[in-house]
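Sorry, any thoughts here?
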Amino acid sequence: MSVVFTDETRERAREIIARYPADRSRSALLPLLHLVQAEEGYVSPAGVAFCAEVLGLNKAQVGAVATFYTMYKRKPTGDFLVSVCTNTMCNVLGGQEVYDTLSEHLGVGHDETTADGTITLEHAECLAACDYGPVMTVNYDFFDGVDPSTARGVVDELRAGGRPMPTRGARLCTLKEMAVQLAGFADERDGAVADGGPGEPTLRGLRLAQQHGVSVPGFDPNTPIRSKAEADKAAAEAKAKAEAAKPAPAEASAAPVKGGDGASAPTGAAGVAGPAKPADATEPAKPADATGSTTRDVTAPDGKSPQVRTAETRQPDAATAVADAPGTKVPVDGTGTAPAAGDARAAEAAGVAANAPAGDGKPAGDEAGAQERNLTEAKAGTDADGAGPADASETGAQK
C-alpha cells in the first residue's frame, strides 16, 4: 500500500469505532471516510482499504458507500471546495451566472481544480438556503446573496492566501480541517467558532414572535436539559401519579330499578329472570378508541406479533397462513381445506439455514474478529502483545 496513515489517524479511527456497540461497528464507516479524507484530501483506494481493514468489511462494501455520497471526493481536491447552487430558486436569482463567471475566471469546470491546487469548483443542485439565494459555499460555509462580482472577489482572496468571512457560521478552514470536524472531532483552532452568526431571514420568525408576544405556554429558556436517567425517572413518576388518580371501578348498584309503572323491576337475582331481549337485538358497537376505529379486537393466535401474523396471511404458498384478521382470505389446497397455523419465523430460519451466504456476499460486518480487535485497542490503547497505537492495526491483521 503506497499510503501509510499516521499514528494520529489510526488512534482517531479506534476512537470513532469505540463510539458504537461491538456488533454495530460498521456504523462508524461514514465518519471514518471523513477521517481518511482529512489526511489525503480525498478518499483514495488506500483510504478505502484502510476503512475496510479496521471495520472487517471488504473494499466493495466501503467503495459502495464512498461513491454514493458527494461529500466524499474520489480524486485530489483543492484546499477550498467552492460550491455554487444552480437549482431552481438560486438559478432564477442568478446562480447559473455566478457559476459561469467563476468557471471562466478560474479556468476550470465542474469538479475540477485550479492548477495551484487552491480551489475546486462545483455546481450544487441545492444548498438548502433558498431564502438567501443565490448562495455558494466554501468548504460548506455559506456566502449568501452573491453575484458574479462578489463571488469572484471571494475566490481571489482565497487564492491570495486570505480567509474571507462567511455570511453565517464560523471562520473558514481548509477542506482537510473541515473533514476532521465531520468525522466528529472539535475544531481546535484558537477562536475558530467565535465569529459568525445567524442570518436575518432565519431570525424573521423569532422577530415576529417577539413583536406579537407569541411564545410557548410555560416555557422557561433557563430550564436545564435533563439526562436520560432523570427523564425516565420523571416519566415513571408521572405514570404512577396518573394511575393513582384513576377512579376506582364503580360497583353494581343494589337499588331496585323502577319499571314503567313505578313498580320495582327484576334485578337479575338468582331465580328471577330479567326482561328478555328481542331475538334480533344486537350488541351495541364498541366505542371508537384513540385511533377512531370501531373494528372488533382480534386476539392473535399463538401470541404472534402483528408483523408475523401479517406475513403469514399474505405469503403466496399460504403454508403458514392464519385467518385471524377481519377481511383476511386464506388460500386453500385442492381439498378445499385451509392449512394449519404455523410460524413464519421457523420457515424463515429454515430457509436461511439452507442458503448460507457465499464468499464476499456475506452481510457487512460479519467478521466479528476485526470488530472486537478494534474495540479492544480503542479501550486499552494497546493490544495483547503490548503494541502501541501505531502498529496495533498491523498486529491485529497478522493475527
Strands lie at 80-85, 112-113, 119-124, 136-138, 141-143, 257-258, 264-265. Confidence is low (pLDDT under 50) at residues 267-273, 287-293, 318-322, 389-399. Residues 119 and 155 are 8 Å apart (CA to CA). DSSP finds 14 helices and seven strands in the chain.
